[in-house]
Design brief:
It comes from Thermaerobacter subterraneus DSM 13965. By secondary structure, the chain is an alpha/beta fold. The protein has 13 helices and 9 strands. Helix 5 runs antiparallel to helix 6 and helix 5 packs across helix 8.
Length: 307
C-alpha cells in the first residue's frame, strides 16, 4: 500500500501546493510529495537512505511532527520507492543522483532549500551542497555515510560482531580476522545476518524496530538492490572529508549514541569539518532517532531552523 501521485507536478515557478506528484528529470519520473506548503518556510527536502530505500516510513513517523512547523518535500530517488526505475540497472551514480535532485529543485522553482538527508541520503545531501552551494540554505544530516567505504565497512563489521550471538558471532569474528578487503567481508556479513540481528544493529528500542518492519511491510515497496550494486561497482573516490570545509552554511548533524551502522565518531568528524557544524547525539537511539526519539528529533530540527 502506497500513495500514488494525484497528477504531474505543477509548472516551474508555480506556488507549492500539498499533494503527491511526479516530475520527469533526466528521463526518469520521480515521485515527490509536498506537505505543509501553507507554512511558507524554506522547504525541507527529505533525502532517503539505502542506497535504494524510500521515504515511506519517514513520512509516517517523524514527518507529521516536522510538517507542524515547516514545509516538507518527501522525495524518492530514481529507481526507489514510488519513482520509476531506469532502463539499465547500472544507471546510477552520485553525480547523476545530484543532478536529479537539482532537477527537482529547478522544476519546483526553489531558489534555495534545506536538504534533510538520512544515512546514505546524508551523503547525497553533502554531495549536493558541494556541487550547488548557492542552492542550500542549511543542512540537516542524520547519520550520514560520508566516508571512504573501508572505514564504513569496519564500523559495520564491528557493529554486527557486537550484536550477534552464538554461531553467527563466531562467523562474524571469522570475517574480522580474514584477509579480503573490508567491503567484501562486510557484504558477506550482510548475507549472513538474520532479521533479529539486523534489528539489534539498527535500533536501540525493539518496539521501534517492530514499527519499522511493520511500515516496511505495509508500504509494499522493495529495495531492488540495483543502486547499491551499481554504486559499489564504480571506482571509489578517496575520502572527501576535507572538502566539507567548503560548505559554509549552518549544518545540524544528528546521530544515535548506539548507532552501529555509521557511528558517533564518523558523525563527530563530519560535524567538526563543517565550518558551522553542530553535533547532536540521541542517547536512546541507534541509526534511526527519527523513529526512536521523534519528539526530541523534531524539537532539535525546529531549534536549528530558528537559530
Amino acid at each position: 500500500m502506497h500513495d500514488g501521485p494525484s497528477h504531474d507536478g505543477p509548472m516551474p515557478g508555480a506556488p507549492l501546493e500539498d499533494g503527491a506528484f511526479y516530475v520527469t528529470v533526466n528521463g526518469i519520473r520521480h515521485w515527490y510529495r509536498i506537505a505543509g506548503a501553507g507554512k511558507g518556510t524554506t522547504p525541507l527536502v527529505v533525502i532517503h537512505g539505502g542506497p535504494g530505500g524510500n521515504v515511506y516510513n519517514f513520512e509516517r513517523t517523524i514527518g507529521p511532527l516536522l510538517e507542524a512547523f515547516a514545509t516538507v518535500i518527501y522525495y524518492d530517488q530514481r529507481g526507489c520507492g514510488r519513482s520509476d526505475r531506469p532502463a539499465s540497472p547500472a544507471d546510477y551514480s552520485l553525480p547523476l543522483l545530484v543532478s536529479d535532485l537539482e532537477g527537482l529543485r529547478a522544476r519546483l522553482g526553489l531558489d534555495r532549500f534545506i536538504p534533510l538527508g538520512f544515512s546514505f541520503g546524508g551523503e547525497l545531501a553533502l554531495e549536493y551542497a558541494l556541487a550547488h552551494p548557492g542552492r542550500v540554505e542549511r543542512l540537516i544530516l542524520q547519520a550520514p555515510t560520508f566516508c571512504d567505504p573501508v572505514r564504513l565497512a569496519w564500523i559495520q563489521l564491528y557493529g554486527f560482531y557486537h550484536v550477534a550471538a552464538g554461531q553467527l558471532k563466531d562467523r562474524i569474528a571469522g570475517l574480522l580476522a580474514g584477509d579480503e578487503p573490508a567491503p567484501a567481508r562486510l557484504e558477506q556479513a550482510w548475507n549472513l545476518v538474520d532479521t533479529e540481528t539486523v534489528d539489534r544493529f539498527l535500533f536501540f528500542d525493539p518496539a521501534a524496530a517492530r514499527l519499522n518492519r511493520r511500515l516496511w511491510e505495509e508500504s509494499g515497496l522493495v529495495n531492488t538492490g540495483d543502486m547499491q550494486r551499481a554504486l559499489a561497482a564504480q571506482p571509489q573516490p578517496p575520502s572527501r572529508m576535507e572538502a566539507l570545509s567548503r560548505i559554509p552554511v549552518p549544518a545540524l548533524v544528528m546521530v544515535g549514541l548506539h548507532d552501529r551502522n555509521v557511528g558517533v565518531d564518523l558523525c563527530r568528524d563530519i560535524s567538526a569539518r563543517l565550518p558551522q557544524g553542530r553535533l547532536v547525539i540521541f542517547e536512546r537511539s541507534a541509526h534511526f532517532p527519527d523513529i526512536e526519539e521523534p519528539e526530541r528529533y523534531a524539537a532539535e530540527v525546529r531549534r536549528f531552523l530558528g537559530s
